[in-house]
Amino acid sequence: MPASSPIATVKCPACKKPVPWQPDQPYKPFCSERCRLIDLGEWIMEEKRIPGESAEDFDRETPQNWH
Ligand SMILES: [Zn+2]
Predict the structure, then answer these.
(1) Ligand 1 centroid from CA 44, angstroms
(2) How far is the CA of 8 from the centre of ligand 1 (A)?
(3) Does the pLDDT value for residue 9 go beyond 80?
């Protein structure tokens, strides 16, 4: 392997910033815990938004528009 290989980077799925792909990057592929939680939160919201199902357990008010 070439000794001078550049550090691989990935794009943070939440904010699209380049993130160094390193073993000590605890939030990869995200750049930070904040972005990881944002993405996770959106994913959970998608899961809950199932058409046709009862919305009884979705009685909390939707937080301010995230998008
Ligand atoms: Zn990010």
Answers:
(1) 18
(2) 16
(3) yes
Residue 21 is assigned to a structural domain of this protein? yes
Assigned domain for 32 exists: yes
Predicted model pTM: 0.51
The residues placing their C-beta within 5 Å of ligand 1, an ion, are: 12, 14-15, 31, 35
| Under 8 Å between Cβ of 11 and 19 | yes
Residue 14, burial from CB neighbour count under 10 angstroms (0-12, 13-18, 19+): buried
Residue 42 lies in a domain: yes
d(CA 23, CA 56): 43
Other CB atoms closer than 10 Å to residue 18's CB: what's the count? 12
What is the whole-number distance in angstroms between the Cα of residue 66 and the centre of ligand 1?
15
